[in-house]
Amino acid sequence: MGFPKDFLWGGATAANQCEGGIFEGGRGLANVDVCPAGPDRSAVLAGHREMLAMDGSHRYPAAEAVDMYHHFREDIRLFGEMGFKTYRLSISWTRIFPEGDETEPNEEGLRFYEEIFKECRKYGIRPLVTICHFDCPIGLIRKVGGWRSREMIGHYLRLCEVLMKRYRDYVTYWLTFNEINMILHAPFLGAGLVFAEGEDEERTKYQAAHHELIASALATHMAHEINPENRVGCMFAAGSAYPFSCRPEDVWEALLTDQGNYFFVDVQARGYYPSYAVKRLRKKGIFPRMEPGDEDILKRDTVDFISFSYYNSRCIAAPGSATEEAEGNLFRSVKNPYLKFSEWGWPIDPMGLRITLNQVYDRYQKPLFVVENGLGAQDVPDENGRVEDDYRIDYLREHIRAMKAAVEEDGVELMGYTSWGCLDLVSASSGEMKKRYGFIYVDKQDDGSGTYARSKKKSFDWYRKVIASNGEML
């Protein structure tokens, strides 16, 4: 039986991690551009260090990234050679509205993405477009404070309308926000939030999240009106939370972690704030301010499908437990003694993907789409310039097997799979180039050196065969 015949195999990138060219084509500056590499990155991502411009003492990897801005035709040709059915990409908001609040879009930016979509069509690749992938114009952060302001909804919807009308003939799959739950863990990255001293950060984060949820619902409504063929999904960072032990306190803490992870999707897929969130936010005195009609908007415009990233599961222990913390992820987790770990300390758990697929599908009964999954590793070309990345093939093979079991044996409705970083790009969490995910090696190093030359890794040919066999040849 296997995967459906129309299963959407492909790869995924984000504009800020691959495009570069941030000072070209009339583009403005965005939050993701000013997140530096190095030890200050985490404080900037968390909104605890204000950085709304580039300075001379930091390196900003998004400025050049892997220069897809000038290489997109070559890159899409390679995606076509692998047989991609879909390519998940994001739009750089500031290529379209450089400051974020203009009334007229930047035509040069619109033409750039139109050329990308034309290239995709040439190879039979259907674009899956993330409208906002960790992307907030610096102009709007300065003027209104990012998503803490309800004014952001109008600016975002103007962007959506321009994109959906301009690309009506090219795009029918849309994601409103990337990893919307990341606003709680990296609020500057997720919503352009910079906190003042003494500010109630939790209150601000949940208020900003409410604004994004309303914007997402209104964008979903708009997409269906502009083109009835449009299908709109939400997207969250997934990964089931395992209790560290069968101790009831650990089980309870894991349940709370899962609820916190699903909260945003509960709203986007079911159309209302879940009772657990209402109770807890009100008890803390941080339930977001709502405008009249907000509840109706959320209820009316739920998403058509649910997409998510899956890199690993999480292991949760009750506070005060003498357990070793896992490294390398933005989500808190203790070390799972039954799993192996990547070079960056991320657990490797293919079975966890099957568990996550089942839990999410059981919860929402809507089609699912795995839009990020992959292994970050230091790929070193051999004397012939070849990367023999068998470790990546092993990782992806086992995760695809887990997906296949979820579809074949468990009855999960799965639309597609886009492996993260189908070509090497800048890591969002660490800002590094050496943490590579791609099937395509890009000659760009952490010190800024490199030719940007593209070359196929061993996994390139392996993934081509996976797609050609619809997941039968693994």
TrEMBL record:
List this protein's GO terms for biological process: carbohydrate catabolic process
* Alphabetized Pfam families for the sequence: Glyco_hydro_1
Extract the coiled-coil ranges from the record: none
Q: Source organism's superkingdom?
A: Bacteria
Q: Which PANTHER family does this UniProt record tie to the protein?
A: 6-PHOSPHO-BETA-GLUCOSIDASE, GLYCOSYL HYDROLASE
Q: Which NCBIfam families match?
A: PRK09593.1, PRK09852.1
Q: What is this protein called?
A: 6-phospho-beta-glucosidase
Organism expressing this protein natively: Eisenbergiella massiliensis
